[in-house]
Amino acid sequence: MKVIKEDRHFQYGYQKPIRCYYVKKALYPVANMFYHLLVKAVHKSCSSREYKHYLSAVLIFKDEAPFLREWLEYHLMLGVEHFYLYQNNSTDSYAEVLAPYQEKTLVTVIDWPEYPGQYSAYKDWYDKYRHESFWVTFIDIDEFICPVREKSVTSLLNKYEKYPVVLAYWKLFGTGGQMHHDYTRLVIEQYTSCRPKLYTEGKIFYNTRFDVADKLISMHGMNTKWKNINIPPVNTFGKFLIWGFHRVNGNNDAKMQINHYWSKAFDQWEKKYEKGSIEKGTKWKDYTFFERLEMECTSQDHTIFRFLTKLYLRLLIKER
Predict the structure, then answer these.
(1) What radius of gyration, in Å, describes the C-alpha atoms of the chain?
(2) pLDDT digits 0-9 by tens, 252-286
(3) How is residue 286 annotated by DSSP?
(4) What is the dihedral of CA 237, 4, 203, 188, to 10 degrees?
């Protein structure tokens, strides 16, 4: 057995021992080719359906009013057409922020008091709203989809339509030494200090033409099924996630990353810790976890800055 913690391209989040590592490593190209041929054949047999939205996002949130507008406008700018927002016991002014978007039917707000309630909210979406969108992604308020070269997410997803699930990897950002968040500036502008490599966890884009194979709808990666065959996710490098392997293409071309501003400034991390995890229902990302991430943020990433001017202009126009 072998445990992979890091390689040339990735820092590994899920470090489970891989049995028969060298045998699986040798067989990986064959398995990867098998799934590529399978999805190509399945894609041809999929029936066409009319969808209300090409790309939607599902979010569960609590007391995030200061960050909702930037997050919504940014993703609308990149091509997300609709948002399913599960409101989890918020006491702030979220309703006031969301009102203009509700008037334009850009958001569907669902009151969701369960705690922990993340996976049950996703299951509710799957049961009620799945067939309204061709693609859906399950991202949090501190996550921003960041195409590397494309101008929109939708133009990129057009190239992946034969795949059931596409995983975009996290780029993990730290505080950059900020003790207090500046509410006069955008999140994507303030934080550039990050880990130098992509993280092997991230968020998925789910093609709703395929049934979920697992009972648990995971935002980090899930299998779908075609007849009796389970199909794993493919990453943005075009490599299937098989046996715990994460591979890149010859050009090391990720095409897209998820900028995960998981802590923001130190005061925001403190609030996040006290709030607890809606996924796990516990306060699990403690100071030891925080410090470990901070110590590994030895690089800078400004990829998302190419969208800053356009986003600022969009926000200014909406204020007039």
Answers:
(1) 19
(2) 889 999 999 999 999 999 999 999 888 888 877 88
(3) -
(4) -90
Amino acid in position 247: R
149: exposed, middle or buried (Cβ count in 10 Å: 0-12, 13-18, 19+): exposed
Taking each helix axis as running N to C, give the angle between helix 266-275 and helix 287-296, from 0 to 180 degrees, rounded to the nearest 10. Answer: 140
Q: For residues 125 and 53, is the Cβ–Cβ distance under 8 A?
A: no
| DSSP conformation class of 165 | E
Amino acid at 95: A
Choice among 8-17, 104-113, 130-139 with the minimum mean pLDDT: 8-17
3-state DSSP assignment of residue 86: strand
Task: Please tell me the pTM assigned to this model.
Answer: 0.96
* DSSP label at residue 96: H
Could you give the CA distance from residue 294 to residue 178 in angstroms, rounded to a whole number? 11
Q: Comparing 28-42, 44-58, 146-160, 162-176, which segment has the lowest mean pLDDT?
A: 44-58
pLDDT score at 29: 97
**Parallel, antiparallel or unpaired: strands 107-111 and 299-300:** unpaired
Sign of torsion, CA 206 214 35 257?
A: positive
Q: What rounded mean pLDDT belongs to the chain?
A: 94
Q: In whole angstroms, what is the distance from residue 153 CA to residue 198 CA? A: 19
Write phi, then psi, for 208 (nearest 5 degrees).
-70, -5
CA distance 51 to 313: 30
Q: Is residue 1 scored above 80 in pLDDT?
A: no
301 CB-side CA count, 13 A: 23
Q: Amino acid identity, residue 180?
A: H
Whose tokens are 């039917």? That residue is 105
Question: Which pLDDT value is given to residue 128?
Answer: 97
Phi and psi at 169, nearest 5°, equal: -80, 155
